[in-house]
Amino acid sequence: MNEKLKSRRLVRTLVRCGALAAAAVLVLPLFPWSAAAKAVPALSPFVMLASTIATRAAGGAALFGLPVLLVVIARRRWFCRWACPVGLLTECAGRLSPVSASRCGPVPRIGRWLVLVSIGAAAAGYPLFLWLDPLAMFTGAVGLAHRPTSPAATAAAAAVALVLLLSAALPGVWCLKLCPLGAFQELVAAGRRWLPRRLAVGDSSTEANGTERLLVGPVSRRSLLAAAGGAACAALGVPLGMRAQAAGRQRQPRALRPPGAVPLWQFGQLCLRCGNCIRSCPAGIIATGWRSESAAAWLAPIVSFDSDYCREDCVACTQACPSGALAPLRLEEKPNQPIGLAEVLMDRCLLALGSECRAMCIDACPYDAITLHEWTFEDDRRYPIVAEANCPGCGACQVACTPMAAIAVRPAAPPLTGRSVAARNPSD
Amino acid sequence: MDPKRMTRRDWMRVLGATGLATGAGALAGSGPACADPAQRKDAPRGVRVAGPDHPPAILRDGKVIQPERQLALLHETDVLVVGGGPAGVVAALAAKRAGVRATLVERYGHLGGLWTGGLVLIVIGHIVTGKKQVCQGIGEEMMRRLEKLDRGICNRQPGRNPTVDAEALKYVMVEMVMEEELDVFLHCWGVDAIMEGNTVRGAVFESKSGRQAILAKVVVDASGDGDVFGAAGADHERRKYHAGLVHRIGNLDQVAKDAAKPEARLLGSITPVAGVRWVNMQGPDIDALDVAELTKLELNARRLIWRNVEKLRQTPGYEKVYLMETAPQLGVRITRVLNGLHWLKMSDVLGGVRFPDVVAVGGAWNGDHQEWQIPYGALVPKNVDNLLAAGRCISGEPLMSDLIRVIPNCFITGHAAGAAAAVAVKDGCLVRDVEVPKVQKLLLQQEAYLG
Lengths: 428, 451
Fold this sequence. Notes:
The complex is a heterodimer.
Chain A: H1 2-27, H2 39-42, H3 45-55, H4 62-74, H5 78-82, H6 85-96, H7 110-123, H8 134-143, H9 151-169, H10 173-178, H11 180-192, E1 197-198, E2 214-215, H12 221-250, H13 264-270, H14 276-280, E3 286-287, E4 302-303, H15 316-320, E5 341-344, H16 360-364, E6 370-372, E7 384-386, H17 396-400, E8 407-410
Chain B: H1 8-29, E1 58-60, E2 63-65, E3 72-82, H2 86-97, E4 102-105, H3 113-116, E5 127-128, E6 132-133, H4 138-148, E7 153-154, E8 163-164, H5 166-179, E9 183-185, E10 189-196, E11 199-207, E12 210-221, H6 227-232, E13 236-238, E14 241-242, E15 247-250, H7 264-267, E16 269-270, E17 277-279, E18 285-286, H8 291-314, E19 322-326, E20 336-338, H9 346-351, E21 358-362, E22 372-375, E23 387-389, H10 401-404, H11 407-427, H12 436-445
Parallel strand pairs in B: 3-4, 3-12, 4-9, 12-23
Antiparallel strand pairs in B: 1-2, 5-6, 7-8, 10-11, 11-12, 13-20, 14-18, 15-17, 15-19, 16-17, 21-22
Helix pairs in contact in B: 2-11, 4-5, 11-12
């Protein structure tokens, strides 16, 4: 029997190492398919469920999380034992520790509360703590290897390092007590007890004549109370989410976010900080900064048009987002989910000042959204006018206006409905 | 009066009165040699002219007919440069300095074209990224000469767009042209090309002296509007663009220090003369070859300028500011553009395409892109021989209009055209068959920059 156990453990170790390698390969920029990195954080059923509830939409990411969820229902914590790359790393860290594995017992199961509150808040559209998901952290730390100084990468790497340190100090504390993904699996397993099941023959509740009964729900009072407590905890998340939504709606966004971004109040919490959008952008215009306009949006990605603009033939970032913080867009939908609105700075624009200018902003605009105010003897001014209905805030004009920097994209009101903007020729 | 009875006082009275009378008589008779205006000796002498110099146009059956006649020959030369703007003056100087006879003909009474007469004044488009000045040669020599004059030029620092004073530059150009002993004809409007088959042999000019011809071995069309290649039947394109009238305002050094700020576009930009600024006008889009539209623009522009200057004067503190002059030349930006052996493209400019037959290197507006090369073919018409274009009318796509019309581009293409014309004359070949390396060598000798 020892042999069987040993070989089973060996197989499991091999599979886990393989999973870690596969995750690293998917996440590092080795695949030409930019959405490959989406697979890793999307595998988390916790993220999938919370984001589906929050955005009220099942994105393509559900493809990955749903099978995992189904297996989790059948087999408790199988993901932790067989697939989780962070789990393997924490276990290795734990083995290095002289502390015994049983010492983390007294630590309360914080993970469960986090998961319950997150799901509850997700019902109000404001999922919390998604960024604590280990797969998100792993993706953020490893995926941005090509940009290690990015604040998102630094923070994710620091988080992973912290998790490993904790696991070295108290082996198993992360996986057993803190990890929201692990806690999610346990909650699912606990919920399984609510499914109707047959009692085995010989149980005290069988009738004297041998017929079986079906049990529904957990039987003990403790289980019932625990379930009620969990539901209350989840319900606590709802007002939290609604309060955040109300506060967030009033705030004027100051930074530009990638196309297809959900409103700022929701964006900060839906974003996993996984860095997929940053990595997938061919123009390299998405980045994170240490400063943020709000605490909830700290380290969430920002778009800036310093050297390039949001190309009219690309929707890579929206396809790479696993949590729906950037809604997956098709190319023809992208202009209708604007990044912002271009604004002419009349005190810097050479034309507005009466000077000569080649009006490169007009040539550069892929959506023909800029026209010239007509010069007449009655109104002798010629300057660029941005058509709000046509401008998706791609930033081409901002990049073109050098060195005057007289036109810039500003954050605008939420996307208008009924827009139908098309690029001049996406293949240009 | 009894002379024996006259006292000394009486004698003084008589003498005084006689003296006065003589003096008055002398005064009345002074000025013209004699008091009679009908006897003036320096009145302009006249020669009686009985009939017209040539048969006039006639009206026959409601049509206006110009009878065929031989035209008087005004001059004969090697290189005839039509147009005395930045392109033409540089072309003529380049050709003369290369050792051939050169003649410069200009329709106005001054040299410098739009740079002076149009009050463009500012030099934009000679710098590239890194503040490097790529437009050199004779144009740069003009700017260096202006530096020596007080109030000749300002903002001559690396990376900046210098502004010249129109009068100073008119003077500098005249000095340079007279130093080289160029043949110059002012007040002469180039109206037609003289053709022998498809070859240009000279040009026809209208002036107060009548319609006259100048024959030449090579003609450089530096008219800006491509008047010569248009008349010669060269393949070309006509464009409509905005045209405006520039004006200058003065007494801005008398504005109160704490005055309110008026609209920036009314104030324009500085000139080398303190207190004087020039104000641009973008203007409406017109066909600047349509004299009705040109007239309408001039008339309306003067009213607009007056209105704007009055608006400026009404700003508190600006009461002493006044309209100094409106430009003698209307600021036409582009009209005819040659369709030559090479069609300049913006994508080539931005892509930094290099040509083996480069004859000029252009810069960027505000140094916002790299230097770009102009191949010889952009100056050469496809279907007409012995004619070169120079200045804003060289061959290029509409997107290139703003790059080819700027002053530095005019003086570098003028330089190239003058040098190429000189080489063609010396080698006795057609302009399209010129060996470009010889032109490049000559240009480099004359301190042009070719990359």
